[in-house]
Amino acid sequence: MKSRERGNIWPMISVAGGALFMLVIVPLMLHRERSARLATVEPQVSIGDGGSDLIRGREVPMYRWPDSEVPRTADRLRDVTAVAIAAITYVTEGAIKGRAPRDVAEIVSGIGERQLIPPEWLTSQPGVLQIPRGTIHIRYLPGDLAVEVISVPNDRRDGPAILIRIPDRENVAVGARYFESMQLDGIVYPNPFAPIAEIIAAGWQPRLFKQSQMPDEQRAQLEQWIQTAIRK
User: Fold this and answer.
1) Which residue from 129, 139, 146, 150 is spatially nearest to 192, judged by alpha carbons?
2) For the segment 74-124, what is each residue's pLDDT rounded down to a tens digit?
């Protein structure tokens, strides 16, 4: 009987993990690839046949985005999104097996052992990861099996703070979203799993993952299915 239950569990884990992966990570990777192509400039100016011959064989000039707030914020959003999905997938899998993580330290240890995060990100502080442009804080609510991840910038040049919450139960129709702090200095960080109204009042603004192609109805059904599967 137990082996049959395990056989039924793994397809559910695969569906949940795959759906979460397709919802955020793949669109973000495609978006970054498109951005990289747009950042490459290949000017080819020719006057007559001789000009074309001269152009051939030359190295094509490459333009790279300057090291500024925008690309740094994009890198941090990629990293914090990956951590959020890795964490909630670990929590969901453990809950389906009847062994939900006890605390955030267990989550970090689990995703680290599975090499879902670079080993150099790990720190001695429970639930804290050190990324190149900031610090990631993982929050965990065992009773609701919810994860909240905050990316804190090292300084103002690294962009705003970023918050992702999974599942986002107060989000009924706007699509997959995250939150950005409106200030670069004097950022007010909300209490763990504070109501959305309190987060906004603290100076944060919701942002949509615009690359996501999952309809709102399907996203809501997926989140409901995950919760139902976990509670069984």
Assistant:
1) 139
2) 999 999 999 999 999 999 999 999 999 999 999 999 999 999 999 999 999
Q: Which residues contact 82 (CB under 8 A, 6 or more apart)?
A: 25, 116, 117
d(CA 187, CA 202): 8
Cα-only R_g, the chain:
21
pTM, two decimals, is: 0.67
Tokens representing 209 are: 């993952």
pLDDT in tens, 20-55: 544 444 444 434 444 443 333 333 333 344 444 444
Q: Cβ contacts of residue 100 below 8 Å, gap of 6+? A: 91, 94, 142, 145, 230
Domain locations along the chain? 2-231
